[in-house]
Every structure is written in C-alpha cells, then in structure tokens.
Write a structure and sequence with these properties.
This protein has 4 helices and no strands. By secondary structure, the protein is mostly helical. It has one domain. Helix 1 crosses helix 3. The chain is elongated, with a radius of gyration of 19 Å.
Amino acid sequence: MLQVKKYLVGTGYVLGGVVHFIIGGIGLLIHLWTILIALATKGILAAVITLVFPFVSQFYWGYYSWNMTGTFFNTYCVVVVVYAILSLFMKIIFSAIAPKVLGEVD
C-alpha cells in the first residue's frame, strides 16, 4: 500500500510540474503578446516598460484594449482574465495539497 501511495504522489508531482510548466509557457506567450501591443500602439519606450513590468503592464494594456474596443470581451482581455484565474486556481490547489502529501509520504 505504501508503494502505491508513493507512486501516486510521484505521479502527482510530475503532473503538477507539467501543469506548472504549461501555465508558465502560456504566461510567457501572453507577455510577449502584451509587448507587441505596447510596441504597435505606443512605441519602443512603452514596449520596454512593458517588458520590465509584466504583471502591471498586462492589466494596463487590458484596460487600454477595453477602452479602445469598447467592450471587455475582446480577445486580449478574455485571455488575460482566464490566465489569471487558472494561475490562481493552480496555486491554491497546489498549496493546499502539497503540505498534506509531503506529510504523508515521509
């Protein structure tokens, strides 16, 4: 029984690592998209500032996109909000599960 539990915990860690890697990759793509929006709309200085401040700039350019399109439900805003929700959900789930799992396997 202990062997099965260790196998399941190991599988969970691998799955968690893969999910974390995928979420990080999606975040990188969104950040690159944000930099391109800044470059196309306001120029190189805005793109550099966006590069340096990823979290703040995504909210700023999301708000900017919302104002320019007149609707919150444009592609950029929806993608950023869905990504933020998935990231938050992932962090809550992993932080709730990890201490229990680590305590049981030792």
